[in-house]
Amino acid sequence: MVEEPPLIEAKDIYVGYKTYRGVMKVLNGVSFYINEGEKIGFIGEAGGGKTTLMKTILRILPPNATNVRGQVIYRGKLDLMRISEKEMKRIRRRGLSMIFQDPTSALNPVFKVGEQLMDIIKYSRLEEGIKLSKGELKEEALRLLEEVKLPDPQRVFDSYPFQLSGGMRQRVVIAMALVSARELLIADEPTTNLDVTIQDQILRLINEIVEKRKLSVILISHALGAVRKMTNRTYVLYAGDIVETAESNELFTNPLHPYTKALLEAAPKLTGEGIGKGIPGRIPDYVNPPSGCRFHPRCEYARERCKREKPPLVEVKKGHWVACWLYVKR
Amino acid sequence: MAQVASSKEPILKVVHLKKYFKVSLGVVRAVDDISFEIMPGETFGLIGESGSGKSTTGHVIVGMYAPTSGKIYYKGIDISVPAPKRPRQVRKEIQIVFQDPASSLNPSKTVFDIVALPIKLYKGIKKREELEDEVARLLELVELPPEYYMYRYPRELGGGEKQAVAIARALATEPSFIVLDEPTSALDVSIQAKIINTLINLQRKFNLSYLFITHDLGLARNFTTRLAIMYLGKIVEIGPTERVFKNPLHPYTQMLLSAIPVLTEEEEKLKPRGIASRGEIGSPMNPPPGCRFNPRCPFANEACRKILACIFLSCGLQCRKPCI
């Protein structure tokens, strides 16, 4: 049997942002892959480069992005970094979709939900050469609103975003993402700012939809428990570097990198054994990032070598990779 | 003179507190008849989703506005009035740390200016060197080396550092009671842990009492001694933290606990089963009759839709028989 190539394989991605102080060197050679039908997660503190990485794959980086290098191989044949904008558009419309962090800013406040949804459907179908009538567009929009389990789709269709609660807005945003999600759904912090009982419902909804539509999923979340539960594999991103990756169960029960360990320890547990000590300092300044391992200024195990050389990502156990000099056998 | 309370007396007592807001479309019943007590040296948690009235409760306690009805007693003194009408000594002793340090710190002032202001006001220290010494002492308490941080502007600091400055400012008047209004909800867990540890150390050092307002149950589990769960302006469950987590009684508490995404198998075992979250919190302008939670409660019966079950504050258990 021939092994299927991954749906997306990102190789050695570098991305910077131009600022008045100089270039922020954010992504520092990131590689990852996602197979068809797989659910993967990205964790790490805010500012670690998770959203930038997703925007790189979809080629929706802001205009001040610079020094963008690397490859994004789609289904083993097409490099998404090197195709034309027109082709990229087609691939996005055909199957790659993203749910953004803040549903309030993802929706246009001056148009009704129905109009916004119908617009997306219209242009997405035009791309495939299908022109839908107004009635068909509306039908499709209502069907999507029903798929995300909004209790009264017709009322939501006729509402402005401000007339909906945060949870309902997020469902609308998911419905929009579903218009073209046939291969991959990227959920970037889909539940930040939502209450825990709403978060629970949204995550269950996403899970149901991806099972039903057989989508691949990339979940980015501060809710570490959500990533543990929903994904098969997890990547830990710190300051633009993948520092650890393993199957989610393995990673959360047996973290190896000092950063992952400290991050998981700091998360308060229901068992009530107190709170870990946290991690001193903060994400570095990307204009002058630390030399060697970018985590070394905050790491209690940092040695001379960590300041000089960037540690390679090595396989410590089967499928469990760590980028830390502590795990490099000489 | 303020009465000196014995350690058995609560430092803060809230009795039948109500806070309604008039808005163009009607009346928002943000806090609707709640009662609880906080003992000296204790961390009391007020837990709830957005719209539950937990922050409004904290704001009324620090005197940002007057209660609509009900009483607040601090060390036995009636303080059910806005802060400017409270005795100076009480004002000094009750402080607050807000949720978002980016908006609670003046961007055009340095850390020194921010922390020195309450010292000038309440301690009457005017001389520059004395003020600098005092600010330095406070910054050291929150683990910010003064030589680096004293003359920084808020924009130069990270979220955790800004919140530490806000804590230093709250400590400047030597308070004994601090309202912590979601002080870490804008921070990463790595930074949150540091701030919470600082708060725990300060509490031990100065025997502080905290009212800790949060929506994060995991955090409340590890930081509070007792807690109350609020829903649409009402307290639905109150009790020692350990009891509430081991044996949650109210269906809403059970729903909250079961919704938390957890990190370990041991935690998974603590989550109540068979009560999946559903629905959304209603409007405090038009709360449902009877138990406020009844539209979302899988166990709701006719009685729940009519009458509000009462809560025995003494033991914190929900009365199973509805009464009027």
Textual characterization of the structure:
- The complex is a heterodimer of chains A (330) and B (324).
- Chain A is an alpha/beta fold and 330 residues long.
- Chain A has helices at residues 50-58, 85-95, 103-106, 113-127, 134-147, 153-157, 166-178, 196-213, 224-230, 248-253, 258-266, 304-308, and strands spanning 8-19, 22-34, 39-43, 65-74, 78-79, 96-99, 184-188, 216-220, 233-238, 241-247, 314-317, 320-322.
- In chain A, the strands form two sheets. In chain A, strands 6-7-8-3-9-10-12-11 form an eight-stranded mixed beta sheet, sandwiched between helices. A four-stranded antiparallel beta sheet of chain A has the order 2-1-4-5, with helices on one face.
- The longest helix of chain A has 18 residues, at 196-213.
- The radius of gyration of chain A is 21 Å and the shape is globular.
- In chain A, 45% of the residues are buried.
- Chain B has helices at 54-61, 88-93, 101-104, 111-123, 128-141, 146-149, 159-171, 189-206, 217-223, 241-246, 251-259, 265-270, 302-306; strands spanning 12-23, 26-38, 43-47, 69-74, 77-78, 94-97, 177-181, 209-214, 226-231, 234-240.
- The model of chain B is unreliable at 1-6 and 312-324 (pLDDT under 50).
- Chain B has 13 helices and ten strands.
- Among the domains of chain B are: 12-103 and 175-231, Rossmann fold (3-Layer(aba) Sandwich); 248-315, no CATH class.
- Chain B is 35% helix and 20% strand.
- In chain B, a hairpin with a 2-residue loop joins strand 9 and strand 10 (234-240).
- Chain B has a six-stranded mixed beta sheet with strand order 6-7-8-3-9-10, sandwiched between helices. In chain B, strands 2-1-4-5 form a four-stranded antiparallel beta sheet, with helices on one face.
- In chain B, helix 4 (111-123) runs parallel beside helix 7 (159-171), helix 5 packs across helix 7 (159-171) and helix 7 (159-171) packs parallel to helix 8.
- The two termini of chain B are 40 Å apart.
- Chain B is of the alpha/beta class.
- Chain B is globular, with a radius of gyration of 21 Å.
